[in-house]
């Protein structure tokens, strides 16, 4: 009887830890999807600003009007430089792949290394204001 009770207890513990692990995966997946969605919503708001302000230059992060329902994220920056617009944020595990998937693998989305923005369109020289290891939307 004791051995049956011990086996049942061990089974319960294993089931608990397995569910806990699956819960973490689900939570991490939700965070990844939310971050990708947030980035794309910022890019959409930036597009509207960029099209309405053709003389804009420099950091426009605080000038872009975001929808009231969109959470503020201070890690997402928006710049206009040399006629190009940039929305960028630090990369997090799996977020770039979600952004790429959501945009049907747009060539306007890239990732930075120390000198370049690397996208499906190729390499473009990275402006100094964008750090390495960032996800970038180039307009």
Summarize the structure in short.
With 139 residues, this protein is of the alpha+beta class.
How would you describe this protein?
This protein is an alpha+beta fold. The protein has a single domain, classed as Beta-Lactamase (2-Layer Sandwich). The chain has helices at residues 2-52, 95-102, and strands spanning 58-59, 77-81, 84-90, 109-112, 116-119, 122-125, 134-138. β2 (77-81) and β3 form a beta hairpin. α1 (2-52) crosses α2. The longest helix has 51 residues, at 2-52. It is globular, with a radius of gyration of 21 Å. It holds the Pfam family PilM. This is Oxidoreductase. InterPro entries: IM_PilM.
Indicate the radius of gyration in whole angstroms. 21 Å
| Gross geometry | globular
Mean pLDDT over the full residue set:
87
Helix content: 40-55%
Class from secondary-structure proportions? alpha+beta
Q: Tally the helices: what do you get? A: 2
What fraction strand? Answer: 15-25%
Count up the domains.
1
What strand line-up does the widest sheet have?
1-2-3-7-4-5-6
Distance between the termini: 70 Å
Offer a few descriptive terms.
single chain; Beta-Lactamase; 139 residues; alpha+beta; seven-stranded antiparallel sheet
What's the topology here?
Layout: H1 2-52, E1 58-59, E2 77-81, E3 84-90, H2 95-102, E4 109-112, E5 116-119, E6 122-125, E7 134-138
Antiparallel strand pairs: 1-2, 2-3, 3-7, 4-5, 4-7, 5-6
InterPro entries: IM_PilM
Pfam families: PilM
Protein name: Oxidoreductase
């Amino acid at each position: 009887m004791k051995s049956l009770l011990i086996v049942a207890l061990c089974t319960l513990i294993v089931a608990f830890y397995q569910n806990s692990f699956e819960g973490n995966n689900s939570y991490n997946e939700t965070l990844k999807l939310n971050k990708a969605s947030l980035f794309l919503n910022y890019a959409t708001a930036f597009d509207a600003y960029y099209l309405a302000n053709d003389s804009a230059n420099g950091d426009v992060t605080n000038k872009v009007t975001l929808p009231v329902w969109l959470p503020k994220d201070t890690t997402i920056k928006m710049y206009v430089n040399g006629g190009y617009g940039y929305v960028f944020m630090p990369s997090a595990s799996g977020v770039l792949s979600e952004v790429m998937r959501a945009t049907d693998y747009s060539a306007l989305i890239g990732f930075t290394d120390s000198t370049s923005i690397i996208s499906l369109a190729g390499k473009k020289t990275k402006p100094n204001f964008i750090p390495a290891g960032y996800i970038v939307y180039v307009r």
